[in-house]
Every structure is written in structure tokens, then in C-alpha cells.
Amino acid sequence: MLRIDCPFCGPRNHDEFTYLEDGSVKMPALANSNKNAWYEAVFLRENPRGAHIEDWHHTQGCRMVLRVKRDTLTHKITSVVPAHPEYKKMLASRDKPVRPSGKKSAGARAK
Amino acid sequence: MGGYRLKNGGLINRDKPVSFSFNGRKLNGFEGDSIAAALLANNVQQVGRSFKYHRLRGVMSAGPEEGGALFNVNDGAKRIANVKGTMAELRPQMQVYAQNAYPGIRFDIGAINSLFAPFLSAGFYYKTFMGPMRSTSFWMFCERFIRKAAGLGTASREPDPDSYDIAYGFCDVLVVGAGPSGLHAAAELAEQGRKVILVEQDFEAGGSYLSSGRPEDLALRDQLIRRLKTAGGQLMLRSTAFGLYDGLVTGVIERLTDHITDPDPHCPREITHILHPRHVVLATGASERGLAFGNNDRPGVMLAGALRSYACRYGVMAGGSAVLATCHDGTYEDAIMLAGLGMEITLIDARNRKSRQYQAASAAGITVLNGKVPVNVAGSSAVAGIEVADIDEKGVVDKVTTLIGCEVVGISGGYSPVIHLPSHRGIKPRWEASIQAFVTGQTSENIHVIGAADGVFEASACIDHARQLCAKMMGKKPKKQIRRGIPGGQRPLFEIQIEGRKLKSFIDPQHDVTSEDIRQAHREGFVSVEHMKRYTTLGMATDQGRVGNILGLAVMAQAQGLAVGSSGVTTFRPPFTPVSIGALAARERGADWRPVRRTPMHYEHLAAGAVMTDAGAWKRAWYYPKQGETIDDAYIREAATTRQNVAMVDVSTLGKIAVQGPDATEFLNRIYVNPFAKLAIGKARYGIMLRDDGMVLDDGTTWRLAEDDYFMTTTTAQAAPVMQFLEELLQRRWTDLKVHISSVTDQWAGMAVAGPYAREVLSAQFPSEGWSDAAFPFMGVREITFAQEGRDIICRVARISFSGERAFEIYVSADKGAALWSSLASHIKEGGGCLYGMEALGALRIEKGHVTAAELDGRVTLEDAGFGKMASKTKPFIGSVLRQRPHLIFENRPQLVGIFPKDRTGRFSAGAILCHPDQVSGFGEGWVTAVTHSPALGHWIGLGFISGGAEAWQNKTVMVADPVRDNFVEAEIVSPHMFDPQGGRQHG
Ligand SMILES: [Zn+2]
């Protein structure tokens, strides 16, 4: 069981989330009519051994799409941020919340 | 003399005698006994037969490494197989049965396998039944006989009457194993202020303290438990950590009722705990391992430490006289303890030099023979004695043997740390020469192995080890080196072989794997330990190789001419002990397998006599039979009433999404293939969305309520995937769009009133509204109010039609759904209309050629479904590029069609294949997705897909082939719009 530290909900079991896809893939603009560009973005995927950027949807939680850095070899998750750049910025600029345990804040948790 | 109970001593409660039965025979034990202890106390030596050769088996150990005392416990539905008699607590009226023995232990039909032993060697089943010359069907034919003869424990065939639960837990430190190391670590860490959970698989905490025979050890144990609990720590007994997973998530199975005769029926039998610790401390101890020599599986041959456990913990002597065979000092302490309790002991030590404990042993009246090893056990059904022989410094065993008479044999080849849990995390074990066993290698996670589990066997060193860990977790540097191994050292000793003599030496007693099997595996080319394991099944039994693992590797290494330990070790995988399926499923079984979704009108359907059906997690009304009606009678009547009069259906299960915000229009225009930019406020539009790859994702209507407010409906089946896809688009791809979406499926009850007299029903319900075609045209949307208990309730109404009739879909707040439904239903009833269910809904939509999930199965393009013309040519939309892939615009793709049987009395089924009449084979030309009897047309019709579509099959005959149901019907292909193709009925 992986634990994904959702920036909105806190650390939760991965079975609350749905894996969406490789978070490093950039979809072509909608107006881009180049078939090959779409073909590559929709179908071609790396299968890396080690660091991987992946998007997870907190389906049974806050419904946010999260960008997760996970090592495919060790399953170690090193970073979880909102996929939406504006939310990411808002979280980063906000006062770091203090956990009830008095430990690290949300931003610093991703070691 | 045999096995007997000591007059006093042990941790049993002598004031509480316990009567139980073994194979129907009434026996007595005490509270605090394990099954095995009670059997030994009653001098029951033969407790079962082995898996393959049906050799007699006795109790071999006093712990989870047991390979002999495996039982079926209980009768009927509560029967449990493969219960380890060494672990299971005795309880009153317990019924215990031997396994693998039919009709009894003494006379066993399967024992004849022993005579065929040469044919049942390693890989026998594979070679005989799985080889290239044999077919799978031959194996399947033979399998049931072999399985019956091989006779694993038999599980009950009845439904499990017990309940189970899953619990989640969090802690700073999870300590596994409540022996000396675990108790010390847990108490101290709890006192440091950490939240500690200590789990112990035994029904008593203490580990080796329980069998030491020293009262001060028990006092220390009690003190440590008190310290742990006072500091807020939690001790869980009868709880086995069975798996260590990613992120240190630990699976723990807690057994709550197996030891209770009449448990509270509401108490679950077992709880699976899913624990999330920050640190895991593994104090799992070590298993004593045996030695491989002739007939070492005879009842009466046990681990030396087990003899002591039975004596000290249970007050049970396994016999009057024993030969203990060892290669290290640990056994001396066992021997002295046993001799003090009255056992006559000869200790044979493979080492030539005298042990430091030699004097103490001699003083206790023990005969110690140095430089001797066990060779072969004498006696057929029990131990009569043991042949021993001299062993020289090089390990060569003399051919001359001496027989020493005894009742039991205690053996010890050393102690192997229990390293299963770190192995689950992929931590490679490392060979530690000082203990001739594997220990856990380096780990990067917060996993700490202490005590005997790390090869630290001396009690005081274990405590130091635990304290050192506690200090380390407080950030202090370790002060001193913890010494591994048995004080006094050990001689590496695994298998005793004599040149020219064939000995039947068991490595894995549970799976009947002998040292000869392992050598054969080597001769047949199995070099890797993983292959050897699978070929011989060594270590694959329920003891997970606790007994035979190191022995097997040693024999393998010797065959390969390698040093022991250099061959590596097989990977241990979860679970560490067998876990009942029921405990993993817990509450999610039967009706509770998954949540049930009921529409707001559920109980109205039941009151109207509806037969319900499952649609995903939803319960939906299937049909509403009148007295004496079959399902066909009912749905045909309901569908005909819809076409001729008026009827109502519950559509609450449709997905509903609120799409709001200044960019909502732009958003919809991008996700639907058809234009949405100019949809007027107060209008609905049918739309189709694709996936990025160009396939149809879903269809539905979207209503414009205001400039920036839309109400989208999806199909029931795709509601969740569509919502997720839209969220993904807004959060990852089109992050500049100002749109907010929320699922409102559960907030709105939905009902559709359809039929030529739908307008009259709506007028009766909402008399102040205008319902004429001019006032409420096709695809019109309106918000109207519905008076309920003096309050005005807002309803959303659209004139849209799935049935093809004049129809209105009405949505109202879910809590008012039943009231509005009942009110509308009474108006419908007055006019002679009816309610209709899923089956009639299907009939109506098939007649119209309207698609659902049966057609839109994820492999269908717009053109395939007949929607090619809907796609906008002027705007890009999701899937607009990749739907142009060559194979998706190929003219001959299967396309949506209607199907009529040539002989109109014929009928066919969904799933049938559409073929050329002269080529009824292979994949055919298409398939049938849905069928119904059409009340409007008076015969059976179907929808399906066929190459080239209806045009390609004009005036041709196809064969609807259904070989599974042996039904072949000639049919003609027609347009999918089989009824009212112009749509006149719904428009005007
Ligand atoms: Zn969340």
C-alpha cells in the first residue's frame, strides 16, 4: 500500500486515488492538427526504471489531480503537488500549515 | 515410559482441566496448553501422516516452524485445515483430527506410496503429467485422484459462518515479536513517548522467557509488559505480522475467537490490521533447525529446544529418555534443564573438543559423547533408539555405528533468524558465518532487526541490542559491538552421510522433500535456488521453509561444490503464515460486497410491485408485472402503453454534472464533437464526446440554464469516467479555463414521462405552465416549481426523448423525488398509463436505434455509431485529430445497423455473430449488441454492428449465428432507426 501525501487531504492510502497517466507528457494544443504529435502524446510512453512523474486523481478525496514523483523501483514518493500550476503556486505561497504533531509543514514534507 | 505430564511446573492452569478429542478419542489437557502439548502429555506420538509418502508424523517443534502436527479442527462449516498444533491453544470441547490419514493414522491406504518412493521423487508430478508427451487433459484426469491420495487438509465446503473485520492503525513504532528483545525495545520506546504497538503471534508474550524454566524470567516479562502498558503502549497477542509492504504498511492478522469454546456471535473470528508505522522493529527471533540424517522424520524426533519448551512451559515430558544431537553449546542448557526435570539424557556433540558446559552437564547426570553425530533412527512407528557414529575434523563419518536406545531424539543444527518480513521488502539476506545462517542485509527504510532475528542469541546481548536501538532512535551513537552467535560457537553441521549407505533424510518434512531429492534436482540441472525450490517444492509448505531452508541450501551448495551460503537464498513472499481469505475480504462479502445505490424512488418501485435489477451498483426497476404476467408480458405491455398512451420511468441513475463559470460554453464546445457555442439559454442539446484516441466516450444531453450555468447528463455507466475526465482536462490541460464542475448525480431525482398523452399528465401536475408545442418545444428547458408541503420546490424540466415519443424529463431535489413521482404516477394511472422499467426502456430505445453502453463499448467511432455527420468541421474537439487515423476511417468498418429476422416469427440473442450465410465460421462480419421483441413492429428486432453498415447489406441475407446456444437464424439488415425514423412522434 502506497501512502500519497495529498496537499489538500494529508497522507492517504493509494486506493483512494486513481492513476491517470505519465505526468511528464504534454498534450498538444487542441488546435494542433498534427496527427503525429497527437499519436505520440496519446500512445507513446516511457517505461522508466527509477524516477517517474505521474498524475494521480484523488478520486475518493478532494478530486484534485496531483503530480507525484515516484521511484518505480522502490515506490518511494518524493513529491506530491497539484497538477494545476495556479493551485501549486497558491499552496507554495501560503503560510506553511503546522501539523497537529508539530512536525514538518506540507511544503517541507516532500523530502 | 512415553510422554507424561510433570506433577507441577509450567505456565498451564492446573485448576482448569480441558477435555478435547483427537480423532474422536476423548483426552484431557489444561488451560494454557497448545494442542501439541496436550497430545504429548497424553503420550500421543503419531499425530498425522506426511503429504506425499504418508509417513507417520509426530510433533517436531514447539512453534510456527511445525511440519508434523498439522490438524483439521472443528466439524461442519467451522472446520479449519492445516492448523498448527504447536501454535493453537487448546480449548474445551475442541475436536482435533489428523490430516492426510484415511481411514486412520495406524492403517493408511496412502502409505503404499512409500513403496513407490523411487517414482515419487522430485519433479515427479511435473515430469509425468506436464511433459511434452502428456496433455493437460491427462493431468486434469489424474489430478483428482492424486489430490485425494495426497490429501491436504480439507477445508469446509459450507459457507463460512464466521465474520471478519479489517482495521486500520497508525503508530510510531511497530514491534514484531514479544520475546526478550521485543519486550525491552517496546517498553523503552513507549517510555520515550512514542506510540508503540507490540504484536505477538503466540497466546502468551515472552518468547524464549516462556520456556527458559527460570521464574525470574517470567517476573521480568511481567514487569516489561507493565512498563509498556503504563507508558501507553499496546500489546496484541495472537497477532501475526504476515506481510511487510510498501511504505512499511504491515499486515497483521489477529485471531480473536479460535481459542474460545462459545465465542460472542458478534465478535469477528479474525481481524486484519493494516498498520501504518513510522518504524518497524523486527524482534521475530530465530527458529531452531534440525539436521538431515536417516529417518529423521520419525515420530519422537524433535528439535532439542522444543523438548525443553514442552517441559518448562507446559510441564510435559515428551518421553523418559532422550538422545540430544547437537553441534553447539545451546543444547547443553536444554539438556541440563531436562535432566533436572527427570529425563535420562545422552548428549552427542559433533565437536571433538569438550564444551565449557561439559562439567555442568556431567554434574547433571548427562552422558556427553563428543565427536559423534546421529546417523539413523531405529524404530518404524516411533523412536526405539538412534545409531550414532564418529565424525572426524573433515566431516567424514565413520561407517561403524553404535545404537543408543531412547524414547525421543532431540536435534539441533543451530538457530536460523526469522528474516521473512524484511525479505518481503526486497532486502537481500546476507550469510553470517558465525551463526551459519542468513541475517537481514542493509535497508534504507526504517526497518530495524534486533535480537535473535539478527543472530544475537545470548539473552543479555539481546537486551543490549534492544537498548542500543532505543538509544539510536533518540539520536545517540551505539557504544559497543553486539556479539552475534551462540556463546561457545558452533560446528557447521547440516547433513550426515555415510559412504555406501542410503539414508532417507528429510529436509522439508511437511512436503516430504529429502536430501536425495535436492541432489537429483542438481543432477537435472537446477542451479538456481529459486528453481530448486520450485522443482522440489522445498520450503513451499505452510511453514514457509522455516525448518528446511538452510538445510536444503547446504545440501544444494555441497552438490555444487560451493561453500554453504554462497548459493543465496530464495525470496520469501507474503504471507508469513496462512491467512484466511475471509479475513482479507472482511465485511465485503455477500450483500455487503459493495455499496448499493438506490434511487430516491426505490421504495415507490417496490410498492408498485417492481422486479428490481442491478445496473452497476444501482438497483433499478426492471419491470412492473401485473398478476400472472411474465417478464415478456410485462415489458411488452409497458412499451406498448408508452407508444399508445403515456408511461413514466425512473432516470435518476443518469450521471448529472453542473458545469458553471464564464468559460463553461467554451469548455463544452471543446469536449463535445458537435457545436455548443450557440446553444440558447433554455435549450438542451444532445452531444457526443470522444476520448483523445478518437473513440466515443459517452453521449447525453446538456441543458443551458443560464449564461454561465449548464446541466450535463451522462449515461449511467459512464457517469464516473466522464466526471473524472472533465476534472483531468480542467486541472492538467486547460488550466486557463474558468470553469467549475461538480457531480450532482445524487442531488437530483430524475423521471421521464413519455407518450402521446405526456402533455396531459404534465398539465395536470403543473396546471399553471404552458405545455403546448409552441410553449414548450422539442429540446426546450424550463425551471418550474412544484408545491410540496406549502413550499415551492424547483424542478428542472426538458422536453427530450429517449423513447422516441413526446417526452419530458423532470428533475427535482432528491428528497422530493418520491413525492413528485407518486403524484405524477397517480395522474398517469388516471389516464390509463403505467410505469415502465429497464426492459421496456430497452425495447423502446432499440426500436429507435438509440445507443447505450452495449453499443458504445469503447471500440466504436462516431461513424461506426452513425453519428459521423454530427462532428463539427469548423472547430477542434477532443479526439478530432486521432479519429482520422486510417483504420478508423476505413469504409468497411462495422457500423450500427438494425436486424430483422427473415422469418418474422424467429428470434435471436445479443452476443450472436453476424455471418455470411455460406460462411458461418470465424469472426463473421459483425455482432448483435441488443435484442427485443418490438411491440410496435410485432416481431423480434436487434441492434448490432456489421461490416460496411446497412447499405452494404441491402437485399442480402445474413446468418445470425449463436453456436453457444445452438441457434441459427437468417436475418436482413436494416437501418438502425427501425421505428418512426423521421422522429415525427417526439417532435410534434
Ligand atoms: Zn486529496
Under CATH, the homologous superfamily of chain A reads: Folate-binding superfamily
Give the domain tally of chain A: 1
Spans of chain B of at least 5 consecutive residues whose pLDDT stays below 50 are 129-134
Major β-sheet profile of chain B:
7 strands, mixed
Biggest pleated sheet of chain A = 4 strands, antiparallel
Strands of chain B, count: 50
How many helices of chain B? The count is 23
Kindly name the structural category of chain A.
alpha+beta
Q: Based on the structure, what is the oligomeric state of the protein chains?
A: heterodimer
Q: What gross morphology of chain B would you assign? A: elongated
Output the strand order for the largest sheet of chain A.
3-4-5-6
Give, in order, the helices and strands of chain A. Answer: EEEHEEEHH
Largest interface, with Cβ-Cβ < 8 Å?
A-B, 33 and 26 residues
Tell me the domain tally of chain B: 7
CATH architecture of the largest domain in chain B: 3-Layer(bba) Sandwich
- What is the total tally of β strands of chain A? 6
CATH architecture of chain A: 2-Layer Sandwich
The general outline of chain A is globular
Tally of helical runs of chain A: 3
Q: What is Rg of chain A?
A: 16 Å
**In which range does the helix fraction of chain A lie?**
10-25%
Characterization of this structure:
- The complex is a heterodimer of chains A (111) and B (988).
- In chain A, strands 3-4-5-6 form a four-stranded antiparallel β-sheet. A two-stranded antiparallel ribbon of chain A has the order 1-2.
- Chain A is an alpha+beta fold and 111 residues long.
- Chain A has a single domain (3-95), classed as Folate-binding superfamily (Folate-binding fold), CATH 3.30.2270.
- Mean pLDDT of chain A is 87; it is low at 102-111.
- Chain A has helices at 35-43, 85-93, 106-109; strands at 3-6, 10-13, 18-22, 51-57, 65-71, 77-82.
- Chain B has 988 residues and is α+β, with helices and mostly antiparallel strands.
- Chain B has seven domains: 1-155, Roll (Ubiquitin-like (UB roll)); 164-286 and 416-473, 3-Layer(bba) Sandwich (FAD/NAD(P)-binding domain), CATH 3.50.50; 290-413, FAD/NAD(P)-binding domain, CATH 3.50.50.60; 502-563, Arc Repressor Mutant, subunit A (Orthogonal Bundle), CATH 1.10.10.1100; 597-653 and 747-844, 2-Layer Sandwich (Gyrase A, domain 2), CATH 3.30.1360; 655-743, 2-Layer Sandwich (Alpha-Beta Plaits); 845-987, 2-Layer Sandwich (Gyrase A, domain 2).
- Chain B is built from 23 helices and 50 strands.
- In chain B, helix 16 crosses helix 21 (838-848).
- Classes of the chains: A alpha+beta (111), B alpha+beta (988).
- The structure holds zinc ion.
- Residues 6, 8-9, 58, 61-62, 64 of chain A line the site of zinc ion.
